[in-house]
Design goal:
This protein has helices at about 45-60, 90-100, 120-150, 160-165, 180-195; strands at about 5, 25, 35, 65-70, 70-80, 80-90, 155, 170-175. It is an alpha/beta fold and about 200 residues long.
Amino acid sequence: MQIVVASVGARDLSFLNNSPIPVFRINSQTPVPLAIEYKTIETLGVDRLLGVVAANERFKNDQILIIDAGTCVTYDICDRGVYKGGAISPGLQMRLNAMHDGTARLPLLQFSMQSVTIGTTTESSMMMGAGAGLLSEVEGMINRFKIDFPDLKVILTGGDSTFFEQHVKNAIFAAPNLILDGLHTVYQHNVSLVNE
């Protein structure tokens, strides 16, 4: 038995130091089974890296765009086993929070998955702006990346991915456990390195 752990936050994981079960910690410096062209690997979120590893494992020798829709929306490109990099933008809830925090009168809202076709109140206008705006961004990013990577496979994951699955027109593969799959793949890769 083994505990495999990775964290993007500044969480205190010192309680694991006394674990009776061995702990394998994954960070951006951990060996992974792909080439990395990202220039600042020390600042790369381990969640992004794990998503790319898992996607590459699933679609070896393909061009892949991984969209992770959570607090932020991350876009990561893997081209036939080489992680190229990507983009980061605010997620759905962060957009609503920014509208509230950056203005004097807009309310603080929780994002709702209900479809809005046109805002008829301040609240529904904010929902429309956050939701439809991000949907347009996602579709635009997919089309932008397809210019350089025409055979792109799109994988969608993250807490808000169900919202995008229903609305994004481009063909996508839903992978709700992508990051967990990446944890497993990186752990297995490192076990094989030790056993060589």
